[in-house]
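Need tokens for this chain, all 355 residues.
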Amino acid sequence: MIQPKAGDRVSEYVLQELLGTGSFGQVWKAAHHIWKDTLVAVKIPTDSQYVRNLQREGLTIHGLRHPNIVRALGLDPYADLPYLIMEYVDGLSLRQLIERHTTGLPILAAQRITCGILVALEHAHGHGVIHRDIKPENILVARAAVAPTEEIRVEDVKVTDFGLGYAGQLTTASILQSGSLLSEDGRSISGTLAYMAPEQRDGSEADQRSDLYSVGIVLFEMICGERPSGSDLPSHVRKGLPSWVDAVYSRLYTRRDRRLPTATEALRMIEATAVPPRIAPALPKPASSGLHPAPPGRRRCPSCQHVLEHGDNFCIMCGMQVVDQPRRCRECGGYPSVEDRFCVFCGAVLPAEGG
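Here are the structure tokens for all 355 residues:
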């Protein structure tokens, strides 16, 4: 096949800079031939056997319109130089971010990146697409090259490389042949096998939980600067972590039958366990608030005046903690209701109130 080079034109775009290469081919930064400030990323297979993979990836991401998933802008697997044109993300890969923070990313940044990945997977899974290759190389973070890491937002996170995201069984060999990127100097930055769920390595069918297992490994690596080893929890490696980190990680990096079933449930668990403790101040009721009194046996949030349900630990509208000592699950750190006998997050048996 034709080998691309800087200055070549692909569709409406001119190749500028090689971003990465692998067994599948190359990824280039390119600019529109007239609108020079319009940048894209172009994936070009350099071996004919990967043209079908390129076509499959283009079709997959074209059907996934979501701000946390890199968009497909153009596709022609039959051109002299087959190509997939994608949204260009001006930032860093999560791999590059982790290498900049060898002892772990700031906790809030890791939380937001995790949520960004989960939101993307929630959308993909809802459309029947399992990614199958979640790892730091396939997570892009916009603005990360110029903005402080602490200012990373959920919307800055972009999941890419859906080349394996299709229905059907994949072998370990086919995943290794998917073409994990190499750095420009040829140094491998892949490690695909290290992020695969056990069922994938065994050749069994992958499902939503397989992607979540990979997210657990990525979470550990973001927090600790290294991949998990044995039964260590993140708090065993990095002290002073908030309780949500171990709680969420232990429900992702585990046997398939014990994993959280969906990305939605993982997001809910983070939202429930990562709420910062904020004791509501005793605010005087406004003289003329115009609010009707709360129903008998109920009360209003002192911050936003939303009517609280019996047993609420936090206001569902503004997040304000509305009890002095919220009830917490000893197993996962979640916040069950005072009436719950079992934790809604992990299923653990809860002691009676006061026990």
